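Usage

Read records sequentially. Each one opens with the input sequence:
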Amino acid sequence: MFIGHFGVGFGAKAAAPRVSLGTLLLAAQFVDLLWPLFVLLGVERVRIDPGNTAVTPLDFVSYPVTHSLLTGVGWAVLVGGAYLATRRRLRGAAVVAAAVVSHWVLDWVSHRPDLPIVPGGSKVGLGLWNSVPATVVVESLIFAAGIALYLRATCARDRVGHWALWALVAFLAIAYAGNLAGPPPPSVKALGWVGLATWLFVPWGYWIDRHREAVAPSAGTVPGTPA
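and closes with the structure output:
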């Protein structure tokens, strides 16, 4: 899954308005931000295998450190704990941790059975990627719902807050379409380096949020409730 993870990052803003979009995108994509580095270092392995599924030409041979459920929970504790230690916001830390774990859940829906529950253990996956139309529908709905929640939770302070957001949305949509229609990566090394570029979305998220503000809470909520 690709834009579905970003949808979770956007949508989590509604649950934790005081957490920056940059932090939420970091959390939702955290294991995929680590994965290219682990591949380039040879710690985890992937193979270019056109036809492996209808959606992706990648055979995820081994990625127990980033993509097992057990280590995913560990990364969630680490990232959520770091947020709690630096920001002192319990609800925000819980949302950040949940966003990290959500990555494994969405991948479990998408992947064929190649996701380990524990490193070296049995592997699972529901195989949504076996159908391009189903994948596009599910990911698009998650992405759209996340953006809708983000728009309900925030409003632009200036033109940058408006256009920077929609530029990111458009870029992600175009990149997603390109991934579906484009050729396989030329090599695993090239895949790893391109994957590292995903880190650029994190400062983009911080930039957007600096130019937007939380919408006033609706009736029935408690103003000033810590996030």
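Summary fields computed downstream for this record:
- The first strand starts at residue 45 and ends at 48.
- The chain has one domain: 3-211.
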